[in-house]
Every structure is written in structure tokens, then in C-alpha cells.
Amino acid sequence: MKVRWPRAAGYNIEWDLINGDSVYEIRTKLQPAIERAYRDQRPSVLEIATCRFEGFTVADANKFKYRTKLEVEDRCQNHDPLQLWAAQLQSENVVDQQAVKRIRSVALAEARAAAEFAKSSPCLPPAAIMTDIYWEVDCATAAGTTGRHLFSP
């Protein structure tokens, strides 16, 4: 994997490399970037190293095209952030196996319902493409009219 963060140094931008398999590490390292954005209105470069289990698009649906079956199985068994997070919470006695199963079941049901809602919803007219992007723009606030959508002055 080629890291991209050296480019950030050339622009005097704070950067960090994050293990995308660890929810704790992601949360810990995101917080300073969030605080920097709100406090100083400064960007951060965060390279979160993780692995896609499936192809990127329908045209790239064959996960074995670029990786061996052994590599895919290893990634799925040993590097799945959701499984690692569940195991971490269980080891800390925050949840038990039954709770993990319930959470997974509820999440899958919610995802299926959201997908079904999206599929059954009518397509919006092309003119609607620029609405509901930023609340500030839709409501014509000062931030929406000055272009400062994300951070307060």
C-alpha cells in the first residue's frame, strides 16, 4: 500500500495513518482532526488503511479477480472491523454473543428496509439535484450565502 500523507506535509496540513480494522484507533485519531476542523478551520489528511471485501462496482464484482481465495478468507476472518469490534466488546464484557446477534439482525433488517425504500421511491426531477445538500444553502443562512457551509467563522 502506498501512503499518501507526505503530500500533506507540503501544504502544512496535519496528517495521520489509521488502522481501519480498529474502531478504537479510528475514533481516537479522528477526534483531534474533528477538533482542529472546528477550532482552527484547518483540514487534516487521514489515511485509513482498510480492505474492501467485494469489488468496487458491479463491473468489478469478482473479488477473486485480483486476490486469491486464501487472501480473501484471511481478510474476512482476521481483519473484518465489525467482527473485531464485536470481539473487543465481548472481551470487555460490554455485550455477549446473543446481543451481537441481535444487533446484527436489527442492522441487517434496517439496511434491507432502507434499500427497499430507496428502490420503491420515485425518482426526483433533475431540478432537485441541488436541493438537500447543505441545510445552510436550502435555508439561505449566512453560512449558506457566504460559502462557509462546514465551519463557523
TrEMBL record:
A Pfam family per the record: E1_dh
Cofactor(s) for this UniProt protein: thiamine diphosphate
Domain of life (superkingdom): Bacteria
Keywords: Oxidoreductase, Thiamine pyrophosphate
Limits of the Dehydrogenase E1 component domain: 7-126
PANTHER family linked: PYRUVATE DEHYDROGENASE E1 COMPONENT SUBUNIT ALPHA, PYRUVATE DEHYDROGENASE E1 COMPONENT, ALPHA SUBUNIT BACTERIAL AND ORGANELLAR
Name of this protein: Thiamine pyrophosphate-dependent enzyme
Organism encoding this protein: Prosthecobacter fluviatilis
